[in-house]
Amino acid sequence: VSPEQVRENLTLNAEGASDSAGEGQAGASSADGTRLGATRQIFIPAPAESIWNLIKDPNQLASWVPSLDQVEPHPTDGVWLGSTTDLDQVKKFGRVQNEALTRSIRQTQLSHTPADYRVTYELGFPQQPRFNTQLIEVTLLPQDSGALAQVTSSWLRAPEANLPRSLRLLRRPLGAAMRPVTRWTTTIQASTLAEQLRAAATV
């Protein structure tokens, strides 16, 4: 893969009910493993080890995850807290009462072999139990002059118990109706994450 080559691939992991983070909308199910996500592959002209040092550190997430302004440095029980104060970012995740939106951050996968580097983050909304949970997955494949990064953004549906009964009944038809919009949204999210990661890794 040349430094100029950028490849994008939309990964549809399921055709069932799925959606992104809006309140009361259908998302992906952690119980049956179905979710809708997009993967962007992008070449980063930097050593894989230096990119790895960036992406494996939760405290540096705000430098390449657009929905985070800052991450508190000290986790509690393996959970970091991040926040978003940009009002435009807040509005993307539905109706909220405050201008700052708190995110819970869990690092659910961290592995390193000579062939690849992998990390997965789970970003939740502890103050908004009706919102879905975002998964950000990054795989690095070392190349001669840098690394190929595979960046995936996908969503896990909020538990039905967190939703009003009226929204539970609407979840499946609403998810089906919104699926084309969700595909477009997740593609944009994955592309933005990949571009931001390349920018942060090549500063």
Gap between N and C termini, in Å? Answer: 21 Å
* Percent range of helical residues: 10-25%
- Report the oligomer: single chain
Shape: globular
Order of adjacent strands in the largest pleated sheet: 1-2-8-7-6-5-4-3
In DSSP terms (H or I, runs of 4 or more residues), the helix count works out at 3
- Give the overall pLDDT as a whole number: 75
Give the percentage of residues in beta strands.
Answer: 25-35%
Strand tally, please? 8
- Written as H for each helix and E for each strand, in order along the chain, the element string is EEHEEHEEEEH
Compute the CA-based radius of gyration: 17 Å
Q: Mind summarizing the main beta sheet? A: 8 strands, antiparallel
The poorly predicted ranges are 1-34
Secondary-structure class: alpha+beta
Tell me about this structure.
- The protein has 203 residues and is of the alpha+beta class.
- It contains 3 helices and 8 strands.
- An 8-stranded antiparallel sheet has the order 1-2-8-7-6-5-4-3.
- The relative contact order is 0.25.
- The model is unreliable at 1-34 (pLDDT under 50).
Quick rundown:
This protein has helices spanning 48-55, 87-91, 165-201, and strands spanning 6-9, 37-44, 70-71, 79-84, 101-112, 117-124, 133-143, 146-156.
Keywords for this structure?
203 residues; alpha+beta; 8 strands; 25% helix; globular; disordered N terminus
